[in-house]
Amino acid sequence: MIREFLKRRIWFYFAGVITLIVVDTLQLIVPKFISRAVDSLNVETPDIGVAKLMAIGIIGIAIGMFFTRFFWRFFIIGSARKFTYEARKILYDKILSLDMSFFDKNRSGDLMANFTNDMNNIERMLGPGIVMMVDASFMSVITLFFMATSVGWKLTLIALIPLPFIMLISLVFGKFIYKRSKKVQDTFSDLSGFTEESIDGIRILKSFSILPKFENLFLDRANRNFRATLSLVKVWGIMWPLIHFISSLSYFITIAYGGPMVINQKITLGMFFAFNNYIGMIVWPLTAFGWVINIIQNGRASYTRILEVLKTQSKVVEPDNPVEIDEINDITIKNLNYKYPDSNRYVLKGVNLEIKRGQLVGIVGTVGSGKSTIVKIISKLYPVERGYVYINGYDINDIPSKIVRTKISYVPQETFLFSTSIKNNIAFGLDDFEEWQIKEYAMLSAVHSDIERFPKSYDTVVGERGVTLSGGQKQRITIARALIRNCDVFIFDDCLSAVDPETEEKIISSLRKSMESKTMIIITHRLKVLKDADIIYVFDDGQVVESGTHKQLMEIDGLYADMYKKQLIEESL
Ligand SMILES: Nc1ncnc2c1ncn2[C@@H]1O[C@H](COP(=O)(O)OP(=O)(O)OP(=O)(O)O)[C@@H](O)[C@H]1O
Known about the structure:
By secondary structure, this protein is α/β, with parallel strands linked by helices. The chain has helices at residues 2-8, 10-40, 48-97, 100-105, 108-151, 153-160, 164-200, 202-207, 211-263, 269-311, 371-378, 401-407, 422-426, 435-444, 448-453, 471-483, 501-514, 550-556, 559-572, and strands at residues 330-338, 348-356, 360-365, 389-391, 394-395, 408-411, 489-493, 519-523, 535-540, 543-548. It is elongated and about 120 Å long. InterPro entries: AAA+_ATPase, ABC1_TM_dom, ABC1_TM_sf, ABC_transporter-like_ATP-bd, ABC_transporter-like_CS, P-loop_NTPase, Type_1_exporter. It is found in: Cell membrane.
């Protein structure tokens, strides 16, 4: 990716490097002008005209540097920004295209770090890294040349003896600084992650009365971050005085050797001044060499991490010869044995299932028996091999995910609302919608009257993750959001658990009435709501152990009947 980008922006970088070299050259001419000006003030043959001319020349150079500095920033730093802008977009699209198994494996914090820390490191490599590299190489060679041509090679070489140590120091300290900065970053993200989690879970912390324990855990993290920052400051604190000390050794040598040369008139006072200026100028490029190496190392490590994500292929593969379907009439599952990607355990064993258009299908069973897994496969959230799952008689792998997801609306167990108005949450992702539609679907989900009671009604902004709403209200809004999409199949994965049983029953029967032609798959632990279902599949340990209508299952008197009777007893208590 970087290679193609550099190829595309080669002329920008070229222009940037040229303007950078112009700035450096202009900068190096200044001491020459100062040298001439100082010599023109010689008490024996003073010439104020030359001094004035040199002063005007210095102003001219400053103006030239003003423009050229702007342009190298524009060309090089601008290009680096452009890279991260493009790369962030590519990474975002890639991440959105991946199936759920990717998100099972990667923590959101790590993915966020790809967008922030890693992108910043790459930007630093392609921007300041390149600038420093060009600057340091050109400035050190040219400054050396200017030094030698003004006072001769001998004094130049002697005066520069201490300077290679600056390179060494910046290289060694650069490594320390990198390690410690990383620790500061890591401890900081640990601290901010912990803080975020504590604030998110504040209700649980308070209700469990474990605030003091969490305060200690917070202090512990804050302390680690503080100590890491302090140890970084110490390294900086040692490095810069050391560099200054070594560069002052060069000044010392210059005065010790160069001073007598001025007295013996081997060089002029102006040359001596210019030489001292050049020593100051060469310290920076030498320090920069060490930085450049570190910046490139960090940038490459970050780039490798980003490439790893970009190389990930979605396990839900899109078909080479896609089958277009207008509507979903039936879904068939044939003898499905299933294990999740990267897992060796079969969570579904020999499952057979048939769902016809317009049916109300119930999926019930024991905890962890594979109920959610089956609907996630039908919704193409997880991959499945060919030959097991069919839609309208076509293998699900031959139908593009986009088509499946526009025809099947899946409401998961966990509710998630965006931090925007209730109206926008319900109409989420729709370009075209009417106010009455939102109300209609809110009514169907039995949440309309709740929303009307809010002072701003449908314009009420839902707080971060919907904290201003009750659990049941949030669940019903997510149902309205699914219904408005007008799909062929609606899957409700235990998404009414926070609603009282009567309301759940009411919602399901009113949905049934108003959406007769739609297929509804309902996973629930409350068996009462499925009394009118066309078919109920009973899961246990990854297998369908019973299936039939409520009446038939009661007659079988197996697992379903057991669970149902237990629930009746619990209700009557
Ligand atoms: N992403 C995943 N990767 C690996 N295993 C998983 C994954 N999701 C679920 N499982 C496992 O698959 C099995 C079935 O899980 P599933 O969520 O389908 O059960 P469920 O019947 O819906 O449970 P519940 O009634 O508690 O919601 C469980 O043993 C679970 O640990």
